[in-house]
Amino acid sequence: MGTVGTRRTGRSRRSATAALLAALLAGGAATACTREAPLDDGRGNPPPRTGATEGPARPASPAPRAASPLVVKIDNVPGARPQTGLDAADLVYAEQVEGGLSRLMAVYATRLPDVIGPVRSARESDLELLRQFHDPTLAFSGAQKKLLPLIGRAPLRTALPEEKRSAYYRGTDRPSPHNLYLRPRRLLAATPGSDALTTGFRYGPAPAGGTPERTRTVRFPQARFTFDWSGDRRRWLVSMDGTPAVTAGGKRVAASTVVVQYVHIRASRYHDYLGNVTPYTETVGSGRAKVLRDGKAFDAAWQRPAATGGTRFTTADGAPVNFAEGQVWVVFARA
Q1: What segment(s) does the record annotate as region Disordered (predicted)?
Q2: pLDDT in tens, 112-159
Q3: How confident is the model at residue 83 (pLDDT cuts 50, 70, 90)?
Q4: Distance CA 212, CA 256 (A)
């Protein structure tokens, strides 16, 4: 698949975005619900009445190009579950954040659900990971204030609640900050399509060999992900912190392929409001990985020489490791 360049589009728009970003702190979200409340500032304070907080469905202006995916930062603490729209993502990244907790980054290209959430804040290492995509739209609720100018200069389109008010709402069944939801069709003029997935992943028949595996658990300091093989569904059933992961509609979250990618996780320059240092997950470089598909585990090596390219997974003899068609989960584990 292709790679992306470092072209920055809409510098004047980015200047306005940076100004908006500077007003935000790390935000939050929650699970889907049928009742809605007006969008607020994430701390329960309603916004100024500058107009209706909900409006007619309309695309962003200018609309993202067809080859640009939608990327959404999704809350993953217990109070944010069950999530909404996670089953429609083509790709889900699981990353470590402050305090050893986890957060999800979901990438949407071939399907757009009606609602996604709860939406939460971005991190510095997200920017490196997103460089593999062409001009992605990043939906998030805020970030550490010293990081905001860096996000404003990044080669991506921001979709903040303050910028795209009609695309967001706050649910009334969960407390803030775990109740912010996105209506993706109010951001994108059309479904991006598979060409937007410039990840470097290859899909096709499984490689030779592999070890039969029924379950695999990946542990963070204060979170864990477990993947159990279902022969009936031909999927890896996802559990988080010991609880089966289901959507707000009751659908079990399941992946066709799971990648445990061992990476270097170091301290970043940033921290949360409690003083916890924000981890930085390095996704450029190389290392080892486990690829789970078809009820087997395959030893692999990963290579991503530059941020503007995708990640290749290969066997010991250099052959590409194909993924199974369907949703892919990538869990970044400490090397």
Answers
A1: 34-67
A2: 999 999 999 999 999 999 999 999 999 999 998 899 999 999 999 999
A3: very high
A4: 15
**Assigned domain for 264 exists:** yes
Same domain, 188 and 301: no
Residues 265 and 306 in one domain: yes
3-state secondary structure (DSSP) of residue 66: coil
Does residue 41 surpass a pLDDT of 70?
Answer: no
Q: Residue 263: give its domain's CATH number.
A: 3.50.90.10
Instruction: Answer with the one of 196, 220, 245 that is the final residue of a domain.
Output: 196
Report yes or no: 191 and 112 within 8 Å, Cβ to Cβ. Answer: yes
Contact criterion met (CB below 8 Å) for 259 and 331 = yes
**What backbone torsions phi and psi does residue 290 show, to the nearest 5 degrees?**
-115, 130
Is the confidence at residue 48, as pLDDT, over 90?
no
Question: Which pLDDT does position 36 carry in this prediction?
Answer: 64
Task: Give the domain extent around 23.
Answer: 11-44+65-196
Report CA torsion sign: 96, 137, 202, 244: positive
